[in-house]
């Protein structure tokens, strides 16, 4: 609030009142606030603006121990000529006849008549009514900051709270940080609920503008680096259905490390329930890198075809030699259409997990380890096929439908069939699972698309910083050399 001058007038202009202790009650059960000299309003007092009126009366209320509510106003030629400010306990509770169940709440209205009224007088506002007595007791100085009109989330607090929310710091912990920063809860000036409401108001203000903000963000990224690329597709109602984007570092990394990629989708990353679809790889330090990302409206083969087409347009150097995915029919159709010359391999980790679901407990307990040894230890396709057939006969599972299906698909997931193809030591989409776990530290299902992109960019940046560690070790550490010990 800017500094302002208030005409206090002479001492003789103030109404003469006997000092009454705020803890005492007069014959009419009325309470009189006690405030510092010169901080009490009086009839005839003038202010330069309504903001100054509100500030002065609210400051008086804070010292006195009550809360202020803004009352009605009168206008003439669209200019306010009269305004009222009253105690927050003014009026009575309105009881409405309704069959709907109601939440039981404490009484906040007690029929208090304390108020201040001003009228426009030339360029100023003059106090014409000042009712001083209240019909209720006052809050103590240690608790007055909790009253509604004295709580306020400052711009600095709002900005800090937003930054902490972006870092997934819970609101309760945000309050602890603000407490340490301000020297105590009583000095924060707002409550945990106020912080939540301020964040909700920001989200509400951005509702309906998420798509525009996202497009502006992508345009700004492309301006900063022309090698950034993105595509947004909308449906017949002009709603976003698919999004693809890849930054410059992803496209450059694909040139070097794009022989083997992992593709997997995940849910619960945004409030619109769009499906997050990243394509991942591994660098020369064995660290996960991102080759592009997307949001899809569903997991149909049409959506996957669109995604892979956009991805191939963005990536230099042609299609990968191998792609690892879950066993998903829609993905399989899309990969056959867009990446016909790429070896499509199923995630062996997900298939091994299904053994416990597809086999009864006794069969699983007795034979799973034998199946596992057969899968991992076979040196070539012929050895695997012989061991598998023998194991099926011994376990009497010749008519087990799922095992038969998986044997027919053996070229897609058994290591012995793909040893001749470079796989960067990846045989499962577990790298995608760990990637999702990493990003879940930054995002959650309440995020808008713009929130997600902002947090995702920060997560990628942080992962990039962490990826420097092995390189730093190579530069700073000298290998220890010495004679071989026998």
Descriptive account of the structure:
The protein starts with 45 loop residues before the first strand and ends in a 10-residue tail after the last helix. It is α+β, with helices and mostly antiparallel strands. The protein has helices spanning 50-64, 155-166, 171-182, 192-206, 210-224, 248-257, 301-314, 329-338, 348-358, 361-377, 381-395, 401-408, 430-439, 449-466, 468-476; strands at residues 46-47, 68-76, 79-87, 115-121, 124-131, 229-234, 240-246, 260-263, 275-282, 288-296, 322-325, 343-346. It contains 15 helices and twelve strands. It has four domains: 11-90 and 111-145, no CATH class; 155-206; 210-347 and 423-468, Nucleotidyltransferase, domain 5, CATH 3.30.420.10; 349-412. It is elongated.
Largest sheet: 7 strands, mixed
Mean pLDDT: 82
Name the assembly state.
single chain
Q: Domain count, please report it.
A: 4
Low-pLDDT regions:
1-27
Identify the CATH homologous superfamily of the largest domain: Ribonuclease H-like superfamily/Ribonuclease H
CATH class of the largest domain: Alpha Beta
Cross-sheet strand order for the largest sheet = 6-7-10-9-8-11-12
Structural class computed from helices and strand pairing: alpha+beta
Q: What's the quick description here?
A:
The longest helix is centred in the last third of the chain and has 18 residues, at about 450-465. The protein has about 475 residues and is α+β, with helices and mostly antiparallel strands. A 7-stranded mixed sheet has the order 6-7-10-9-8-11-12, with helices on both faces. A 5-stranded antiparallel sheet has the order 1-5-4-3-2, covered by helices on one side.
């Amino acid at each position: 609030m800017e500094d302002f001058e208030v005409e206090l007038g002479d001492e003789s202009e103030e109404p003469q009142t006997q000092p009454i202790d705020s803890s005492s009650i007069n014959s009419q059960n009325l309470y009189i606030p006690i405030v510092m000299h010169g901080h009490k309003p009086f009839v005839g007092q003038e202010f330069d603006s309504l903001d100054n009126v509100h500030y002065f009366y609210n400051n008086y209320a804070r010292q006195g121990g009550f809360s202020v509510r803004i009352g009605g106003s009168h206008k003439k030629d669209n200019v306010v000529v009269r305004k009222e400010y009253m105690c927050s306990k003014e009026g009575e509770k309105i009881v409405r006849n309704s069959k709907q169940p109601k939440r039981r709440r404490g009484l906040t209205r007690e029929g208090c008549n304390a108020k201040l009224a001003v009228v426009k007088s030339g360029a100023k506002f003059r106090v014409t009514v000042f009712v001083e007595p209240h019909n209720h007791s006052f809050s103590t100085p240690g608790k007055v900051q909790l009253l509604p009109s004295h709580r306020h989330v400052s711009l600095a607090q709002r900005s800090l709270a937003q930054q902490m929310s972006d870092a997934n710091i819970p609101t309760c912990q945000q309050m602890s940080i603000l407490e340490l920063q301000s020297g105590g809860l009583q000095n924060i000036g707002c409550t945990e609920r106020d912080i939540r409401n301020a964040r909700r108001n920001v989200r509400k203000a951005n509702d309906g503008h998420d798509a525009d903000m996202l497009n502006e963000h992508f345009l700004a990224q492309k301006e900063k680096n022309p090698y950034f690329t993105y595509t947004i597709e909308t449906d017949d109602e002009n709603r976003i259905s698919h999004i693809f984007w890849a930054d410059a570092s992803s496209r450059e990394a694909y040139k070097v490390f794009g022989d083997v990629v992992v593709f997997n989708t995940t849910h619960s990353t945004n409030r619109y329930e769009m499906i997050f679809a990243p394509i991942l790889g591994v660098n020369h330090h064995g660290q996960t890198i991102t080759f592009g990302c997307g949001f899809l409206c569903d997991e149909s083969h049409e959506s996957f075809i669109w995604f892979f087409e956009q991805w191939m347009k963005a990536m230099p150097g042609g299609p990968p030699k191998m792609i690892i995915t879950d066993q998903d029919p829609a993905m399989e159709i899309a990969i056959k259409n867009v990446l016909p010359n790429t070896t499509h391999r199923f995630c062996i980790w997900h298939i091994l997990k299904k053994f416990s679901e597809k086999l009864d407990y006794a069969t699983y307990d007795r034979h799973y380890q034998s199946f596992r040894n057969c899968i991992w230890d076979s040196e070539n396709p012929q050895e695997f096929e012989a061991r598998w057939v023998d194991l099926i006969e011994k376990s009497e599972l010749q008519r087990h439908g799922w095992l038969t299906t998986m044997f027919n698909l053996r070229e897609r997931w058994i290591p012995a069939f793909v040893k001749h193809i470079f796989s960067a030591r990846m045989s499962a989409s577990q790298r995608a699972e760990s990637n999702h776990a990493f990003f879940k530290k930054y995002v959650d299902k309440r995020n808008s698309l713009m929130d997600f992109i902002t947090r995702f960019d920060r997560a990628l940046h942080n992962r990039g910083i962490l990826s420097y560690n092995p390189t730093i070790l190579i530069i700073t550490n000298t290998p220890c050399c010495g004679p071989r010990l026998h």
